[in-house]
Write a structure and sequence with these properties.
Blueprint: H1 5-37, H2 41-57, H3 62-81
Helix pairs in contact: 1-2, 2-3
Length: 98
């Protein structure tokens, strides 16, 4: 336990920040789980917003947010683009002669 007045104040601040960050991270996890259960574009945009805010506040790093966004997008994409499978044409372009 700190004895110096400034150290006591720092301890109080650290404890308050820890509690606030813990609650914010729990909300972030809840939002991500809700998004995975309901993969729609609205849920995806909400998850992206929450992730961006978490990065801005310093709760998670930017790389982690980008990785989570990428994985969520991959899960949404196959359901939306499954019907639109287009094969590239194998036609040869006409040769040009001089």
């Amino acid at each position: 336990m700190p004895l110096i007045k400034g150290a006591i104040k720092k301890l109080r601040q650290d404890q308050a920040r820890t509690e606030k960050n813990r609650a914010s991270r729990a909300g972030l996890r809840t939002t991500l789980k809700r998004t995975e259960a309901n993969l729609t574009s609205e849920a995806l945009s909400e998850a992206f917003s929450v992730l961006d805010k978490a990065v801005k506040r310093g709760l998670i790093k930017k790389g982690k947010a980008d990785r989570v966004k990428s994985r969520l997008s991959k899960k949404v994409k196959p359901t939306a683009t499954k019907a639109k499978t287009v094969k590239p044409s194998s036609k040869k372009s006409p040769s040009k002669t001089k």
